[in-house]
Amino acid sequence: MSENRVIMDEAAIRRALTRIAHEILEKNKGIEGCMLVGIVSRGVHLAQRLAERLEDIEGVTVPWGELDVTPYRDDRESAEGTAAAGDQLKGLEVQGKKVILVDDVLFTGRTIRAAMDAIMDCGRPESIQLAVLADRGHRELPIRPDYVGKNVPTSREEEIEVLLQERDETDVVRLTQKRGN
Ligand SMILES: O=P(O)(O)OC[C@H]1O[C@H](OP(=O)(O)OP(=O)(O)O)[C@H](O)[C@@H]1O
Ligand SMILES: O=c1cc[nH]c(=O)[nH]1
């Protein structure tokens, strides 16, 4: 019944990112000392979009970078070929900064746990915050997002699929049945 249900269309994604940008500004009383870090893969595009929105609103450039957390995962098979976190951030300084992690989907929380480890490897941020486009529940770790595009109640047999213009030539968040179910 829930096969391929559209959860967010292009307009909903756009509005959610605009709202999250305002929430970031409100929580941090501006953007001073903040940086965005998008998790590979689609979190990177969301971080870039958020940085652009923040810049439109505040008129200042917001530093942002990207992070592939593969070497820090607890379920990794091989991290071969993935650069150390510090190299991936290309000189972006996390020491003393408010680091805002950005990802498309929050599920078990294991990706974000790995991302926090990667950030801590690069320095001691003032804080780490988390922005996600969709939170589908089923956490296995004590991790909660600070900014959420949409909370989506799901069963374990379902999957959230996020498609973004930059990679997929369309903007949509869909709820699908896991293959094999
Ligand atoms: O909370 P978790 O259980 O860790 O799940 C969430 C992660 O899963 C997906 O990434 P995936 O590993 O599928 O890679 P992708 O972003 O390249 O699709 C998604 O983009 C999140 O990063
Ligand atoms: O449903 C899910 C779970 C993890 N990651 C996704 O992108 N979707």
UniProtKB/TrEMBL annotation:
InterPro entries: PRTase-like, PRTase_dom, PyrR, PyrR_bifunctional. A motif (PRPP-binding) lies at residues 99-111. Its EC number is 2.4.2.9. The keyword Metal-binding does not apply. Gene3D superfamilies: 3.40.50.2020. It is an enzyme of class 2 (transferase). Keywords: Glycosyltransferase, RNA-binding, Transcription, Transcription regulation, Transcription termination, Transferase. Residues 11-153 form the Phosphoribosyltransferase domain. It catalyses: UMP + diphosphate = 5-phospho-alpha-D-ribose 1-diphosphate + uracil. This is Bifunctional protein PyrR. It comes from Paenibacillus yonginensis. The lineage of its organism: Bacteria, Bacillati, Bacillota, Bacilli, Bacillales.
